[in-house]
Write a structure and sequence with these properties.
- The complex is a heterodimer.
- By secondary structure, chain A is an alpha+beta fold.
- Among the domains of chain A are: about 5-50, no CATH class; about 140-330, no CATH class.
- Helices cover about 65% and strands about 10% of the residues of chain A.
- Chain A has eleven helices and five strands, in the order ααααααβαββαβααβα.
- In chain A, α2 (about 20-30) crosses α3 (about 35-50), α5 crosses α11 (about 345-395) and α9 packs antiparallel against α10 (about 290-320).
- Chain A is elongated.
- Chain B is about 65% helix and about 0% strand.
- Chain B has two domains: about 10-100, Rna Polymerase Sigma Factor, Chain: A; about 110-200, Arc Repressor Mutant, subunit A.
- By secondary structure, chain B is mainly alpha-helical.
- Chain B is built from ten helices and no strands.
- The longest helix of chain B has 23 residues, at about 20-45.
- Chain B has helices at about 10-20, 20-45, 45-65, 75-95, 125, 130-140, 145-155, 160-170, 170-190, 205-210.
- Classes of the chains: A alpha+beta, B mainly alpha.
- The interface between A and B is large, with 46 and 62 residues.
């Protein structure tokens, strides 16, 4: 027997629980090995010291106290419901840590679930912000400076700027070709009514609704957008009437001055028509078949160009004669409360506001708790199962 | 425990207590309070905690008495309940404070236990001395709770390997090796506390030697 193996059996040897064969081997080893012999002596001394320790007496009155507790317990068995203190004693910081972990997880989960919407809202905010910022920046082309309210451009106005940028060709104001556009954002109380009114307005003005859409937000609030095409001469009136339907949050007017291109095209068209006329005269004087064919080919080419340019001009006319109004309808925002005067009123206001905040916090907490519930339920179930198994294996 | 010892056996008392007789259980409490308290004391290392833990163990035993079907002796079962309560208490206590037998036991002269014990003289007298006992208990308290448990059950309460296996829900082989390791660890602590010398000649050895050599040694 090796020392290492002998060491394993020393206690059993001292307690006399070794089977005879093993005991004999160990005794032989001990007789030969002084270090193991010393070990066994030390262990024996250890055991002896322990065995000679007197029993510890419980404090006086201990038995009676236990008896009282037992009788109390027998009379009023504690309910299964655990008090908070018991819960603490049972779970302690581990329970708190687990709860905190679940809570954090829930918050993260909540955030992750919420984020797509938040992000979208942010984007919407930004575009809205941008729109408001560009309110008069983009009213290029025709409208001059000044307040957007008053600067609703007279349709046939010819602002000085335009003249400066296009010095090569001066066109009288009432002949300018301008494609007019307007983007308006309105806050409306009654979405459905405003929507219908605007559609009616467009149609009454001889226009039409190119496209429309609406959405339904939280608390049943509705919003939507329309794209209207109205005759140019009614553009201003319709815009003004639309703006009466709600509170104007933003207005963006912009025009595209196509006069230059229009005039150019028109001039080319006129030249081609002249050419066509001349070719007609040449045709009349043609003698040989070869000449006729040659002039005909040329006539055909000129005709095709005339038709293409006419189409371009007609398209310009269509764009210019019908203006586009994009209307965005949104639910009204929370009105900003006017500043409160007076100490008492301010105190009440502050109190109410903090109360509101608290309620909001509780609400959010409840939402978080609700989102944490499945996890907590799972954890409790797992713990209960684990305890059940443990209890079974114990008793 | 002042009254005349109850003639009824554990088994009878258990059966009565199982039928809701708290008085029968009180007899059992009186019979086992020293064992339960002793185990709790050595595991917790604190007289006050030990009283709490021991009372809790009795209450737990009383409330789960119906689950006791006599597979083992009542005392083994009670040890088992107490051991579980002790381990639970140690676990929850570890969060609040460290376990230590270093604190003087009640009734000990102030500062007494901090003196280096005088190990001269006859070992029989040695263990009679309060400070030596306290030092031994302190050494036991330094053991890992698992080791402490087996040493206390085996060497202080005298349970057999089989009983310890039942109490702790372990295999006997595990108990055997754990006792061995626990004793070796305790031996190291005792040597460090100079309560036994390396290569100590134990008392029984000496007695045997003394007997063999006709008492004229030393």
């Amino acid at each position: 027997m090796k020392c290492l193996e002998a060491l394993d059996h020393l206690s059993a040897y001292l307690d006399d629980t070794l089977e005879p064969g093993l005991r004999k081997q160990l005794e032989q080893h001990l007789a030969r090995c002084p270090s193991c012999h010393r070990e066994v002596d030390e262990l024996r001394a250890t055991v002896e010291l322990c065995r000679t320790l007197p029993e510890v007496a419980p404090p006086p009155g201990f038995g009676e106290a236990v008896g009282r507790a037992v009788r109390r317990h027998a009379a009023f068995p504690p309910s299964r419901r655990r008090r908070l203190g018991d819960l603490w004693a049972r779970f302690g910081y581990r329970g708190v840590a687990a709860a905190a972990a679940v809570l954090v997880l829930a918050v993260v989960l909540n955030q992750a679930l919420d984020n797509p919407f938040t992000l979208r809202a942010d984007v919407a905010d930004t575009t809205e912000e941008a729109r408001r910022l560009h309110l008069d920046v983009k009213t290029a082309g025709s409208s001059g400076g000044g307040e957007p309210e008053s600067a609703l451009p007279a349709t046939k106005d010819a602002p000085a700027g335009t003249v400066e940028t296009q010095p090569e060709l001066w066109v009288p104001a009432d002949e300018r070709k301008i494609i007019r556009n307007a983007d308006v954002e309105l806050a409306v109380e009654d979405f459905d009514r405003a929507f219908q009114d605007i559609v009616f307005l467009a149609e009454a003005a001889g226009g039409y609704v190119e496209s429309s859409s609406f959405w339904k937000g939280e608390e049943g609030r509705k919003g939507g957008s329309l794209r209207l095409r109205v005759p140019q001469q009614n553009f201003r009136t319709v815009l003004a009437r639309i703006e009466e339907k709600g509170q104007v949050l933003s207005r963006n007017l912009y025009g595209q001055d196509v006069t230059q291109a229009y005039v150019d095209t028109d001039a080319r068209l006129k030249a081609l028509e002249l050419q066509e006329q001349q070719l007609g005269q040449i045709m009349a004087r043609a003698n040989t078949v070869g000449e006729v064919l040659q002039v005909q080919a040329e006539l055909g080419r000129v005709r095709a160009q005339i038709e293409s340019l006419t189409a371009v001009l007609r398209n310009y006319d269509r764009l210019v004669s019908f203006s586009t109004i994009a209307v965005n309808l949104v639910p009204p925002r929370e009105p900003v409360p006017p500043p409160v005067e007076g100490l008492w009123a301010r105190m009440v206001d502050a109190f109410l506001r903090s109360l509101k905040w608290l309620l909001g916090a509780v609400e959010r907490l409840l939402v978080i708790a609700a989102s944490a519930f499945p996890l907590v339920a799972l954890a409790v179930l797992g713990y209960a199962g684990w305890r059940l198994r443990r209890r079974r294996s114990h008793s | 425990m002042g009254e005349a010892p109850d003639a009824r056996s554990d088994r009878e008392l258990v059966r009565e207590a199982q039928n809701g007789n708290a008085q029968a259980f009180e007899v059992l409490v009186a019979r086992y309070e020293r064992k339960v308290y002793g185990l709790a004391y050595h595991l917790c290392g604190d007289a006050e905690d030990a009283a709490d833990v021991a009372q809790e163990a009795f209450l737990k035993a009383f409330s789960s008495l119906r689950g006791f079907r006599g597979q083992s002796s009542f005392s083994t079962w009670l040890y088992r309940v107490t051991a579980n309560v002790c381990f639970d208490a140690l676990r929850s206590r570890r969060r609040r404070k460290t376990v230590s037998l270093d604190r003087p036991a009640p009734g000990l002269a102030p500062g007494g236990m901090w003196q280096v014990p005088d190990t001269s003289g006859d070992p029989a007298e040695l263990v009679e001395r309060q400070e030596v006992r306290t030092a031994v208990r302190r050494a036991i308290g330094r053991l890992h709770p698992d080791h402490r448990m087996v040493v206390v059950l085996r060497d202080l309460h005298g349970l057999s390997y089989e009983e310890i296996a039942q109490v702790l829900g372990l295999k006997e082989g595990t108990v055997k090796s754990r006792i061995n390791r626990a004793r070796l660890a305790l031996r190291d602590h005792l040597i460090a506390a100079e309560l036994i010398a390396t290569g100590a000649v134990s008392r029984s050895d000496r007695e045997a030697k003394g007997a063999a050599e006709g008492g004229d040694s030393r």
